Amino acid sequence: MLLITLAGLLPAALLVYHIYRTDFLQPEPLDQLKRAIIFGIGSIFVSMLFSTPFEVLGLFSKSYSTMTGAFRLAFFGAGIPEELAKLIMLFLVVRKNPYFNEKMDGIVYAVCVSMGFAGFENLAYLGAAGENWFGVSVSRALLAVPCHYYNGVFMGYFFAKYWFESENKFNNLCWALLAPVITHTLYDFILMYMSVDNSPLVYTLLFAFLIYLCLQMLKWSRKRISEHLDEDARNKDGYQKSERSAHDFYDRSDRI
Hints:
The protein has 256 residues and is mainly α. It is built from 7 helices and no strands. The protein is 77% helix and 0% strand.
């Protein structure tokens, strides 16, 4: 049980550490990151408030045997409810947070929310995998959890633009939801359709496209992180750091 727990939580924990170290201009207090992760776990239950009515209305079914059924499950059963729940939790995390004062912060908090969701979800998958938990843990550590990370970057990138920029606020807020919904749906749809049509050729093509999609998301997320870091750096002239308490663990305060 201990090994399953470690395998389930470690990928998400490493990605949280990675985004924390990437935010070198003014790292967020660890207490705030923990709070975002807890809210991310809560987003799992909030997502059910959307997915359950969608299922009752017949927008998707967990049992599917066609391409359309796979898409409906990926879109209405996962993409929309999960990313909408994360966006709601992200807003709750930052709305009264005095440390949310840089665009990079939007990405950091969105990733932490996403990793809270992904870590808890990962434990559920590994617990249900039985004796195959190790193989499932490897595949999810390489694909599923990183994709939740990328979706967090996409959401945080546009959410920060919505929060800090005076122009195109509605468009940026829409993209804060649409961008992760699109990539999440596409990722899940490929996996689900692979279980519908598992002929060798189709399976190989879909798997190759899945790897390509993940690599493109990695590339795009890196660019968006660099963009916000560069813009925050340009806006640092004369900036005075907000006061932090000893409980904030702000050990890298001088790294500007």
